[in-house]
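Training component of the fellowship. As part of building independent skills, the fellow (R.M.) carried out the full modelling exercise for a liganded target. The chosen ligand was uridine-5'-diphosphate. The inputs are recorded below so that the supervisory panel can assess the work.
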Amino acid sequence: MAELNNNTHHHSARLTRLAVVVPCYNEEEALSFSLTKLLELIDRMGEKQLIDAQNSCVVCSDDGSRDNTWGIISEFHARDPRVKGISLAHNRGHQYALLAGLLEALPLCDCAISIDADLQDDPEVMVEMVELFNNQGVEIVYGVRSSRASDTWFKRSTAHAFYSFQRKMGLETIYDHADYRLMSARAIELLAQYNESNLFLRGIVPQIGLKTATVTYTRHPRIAGESKYPLAKMLSFSVDGITSFTSRPLRLIFFVGIALLVLDIAMSVYVFISYFGHDTIPGWTSLMLSVWFLGSLILVALGVVGEYIGKIFNEVKNRPRFAIKEKIF
Ligand code: UDP
Ligand code: MG
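Fellow's submitted model of the complex:
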């Protein structure tokens, strides 16, 4: 690794080997274009001596696609072996596909950049990311979007609600950063030690705690195909993010419980006063109201508790987080 090089004329400090990690789920419409673009970008960065283009690669992590995604990856690999692929046995979701890709890329690279297959996140800023890694010793570079103008109104507002809800629930994430980021090999090694099966990378990565930086870019519309993140998936992602990181909702229930207890004492006082004071038979309305209210409250509380128990259940099983079915490296 570290040959001492005293020859100053000869700038033979080994160039960075970059791995671009692309999670792909049913991306046949976008992938050919994306891979072509990424290879072209790698070559261009190679010409600028930013990276060692020949020993860099694109690692596609096929998340159990049902279309021709794997076929496209194989074709590209046949033409240019720098395109590599792993195929997960099932659709495990973006986060797991990404983790699998990063871990597989680790032995091949000095740093890896994760990017979505639709290239909505401007690939050109990879240049800045790599420069920060090369020259400033930055180990994690977050891609942050400067505008969401290209997203639909719905996506934009739900995404913002998602971030602020997470903040309120005590989860620290980088605002408007999705999973477009550079991680050094060291950062990935540290990430690999986070063994949790409920994976929420945007929450974990900031906890790794190496030297970080951000670069901003404008997000483009999807190049082809449609979003693989419909509302239902986004909601479950949001709940996962919170419950796998903080127990604040549990405490919230506790506080609501205390508040209700206080209310209940006041209520009992009132009930006793009415009992001794006047007629108490017409109590149907208030009874119904409180029964329904308390009932729903209990259900909500149980739901939250259940959410955590589900998490514990999954962690305790300690199952592998993904299974790689096939690999072309
Ligand atoms: N993706 C994945 N597994 C899934 C869903 C999505 O690997 O179950 C990948 C998808 O191929 C893409 C990235 O995750 O590369 C982000 O998905 P998408 O662009 O559809 O999400 P959006 O940009 O709409 O949030
Ligand atoms: Mg997208």
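The panel noted the following from the submitted structure. The two ends are 23 Å apart (CA to CA). The mean pLDDT is 87.
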